Amino acid sequence: MKLESLWNLQDKVIVLTGGSGLIGSTALEVLPQTGGQLVVGVRDTDKLTRMIEKIDYADGVKKPQAIPLDIADSASISGFFAEVQQQFGRIDILINNAWPRTQDWLTVFEDVPVDSLYKNLCDHAGGYFLCCQEASRYMKEKNTGVILNMGSIYGAVGPHFDIYQGTGMTSPAAYAMIKGGIHNFTRYLATYLAANNIRVNCLCPGGVQDDSHQHPEFHARYIAQTPLGRMAKPDDIIGPMLFLITDASKYITGQILMADGGWTAW
């Protein structure tokens, strides 16, 4: 086997949900370089199209295509995957990366309204569930496919709440329920879809530095508890993502991979 064949996604159709965040926007730049056709499902396709237009892709690279998707809406999900199938004829890879949340997302545990809790659970975890359900229908037709769910260190361990003190930040209680559920749902799907040659894994980033809204004190405290001595950059997450969606990991399924600078190793 040649080395390049392990990382080559030539002519694969790669579906990415959520492409405008820190990790998603970096994936916009990198994934098309693998030779595949990246299709991005987002609510604001105009914004994403403007982002794509600003990227200087090399000659011959297929530019990403934006198609409307709201993973909080079941009809939008089924319509999106049907559109991808109609336009491109196949769905080879799904990366569940969208992050829907309510405006009161950062409310402390004691004050979370029940309606907010239910909406966040349904929109986020439920959206991942339905995207996997729809994508796997088309993957089964080809008897092959890859699903990558984006989890979190906080789906595996509890937060260090002292790093948030005095910063106006917190780790929402619903987030732990959602991501922990996605981790084990990944294991469930891996065994359920194995007969169809569909691999399912979960990639769990640690804290990704974002100076636009994260408090400097939070940065310092987080870094002090990270063995590698820094927060993640978006491109720190893309390498493991590539590994899990390519043939470099063709015998790996049902796994939860931490990309956290050692945060969960203490």
Compile the SSE list and pairings.
Blueprint: H1 3-7, E1 13-17, H2 22-30, E2 37-42, H3 45-53, E3 65-68, H4 74-88, E4 93-96, H5 114-142, E5 145-150, H6 173-192, E6 198-205, H7 216-224, H8 234-245, E7 256-259
Parallel strand pairs: 1-2, 1-4, 2-3, 4-5, 5-6, 6-7
Helix pairs in contact: 2-8, 4-5, 5-6
Distance between the termini: 37 Å
Question: What's the gyration radius in Å?
Answer: 18 Å
Indicate the low-confidence ranges by residue numbers.
none
Helix proportion: 40-55%
**Main sheet attributes: strand count, strand direction, barrel closure:** 7 strands, parallel
The number of distinct helices, counting runs of at least 4 residues, comes to 8
Helix/strand class = alpha/beta
Rounded mean pLDDT score: 96
Strand content range? 5-15%
What is the ordering of alpha helices and beta strands? HEHEHEHEHEHEHHE
What shape does the CA trace take? globular
Count all strands and give the number.
7
Q: What topology, given as strand order, has the largest sheet?
A: 3-2-1-4-5-6-7
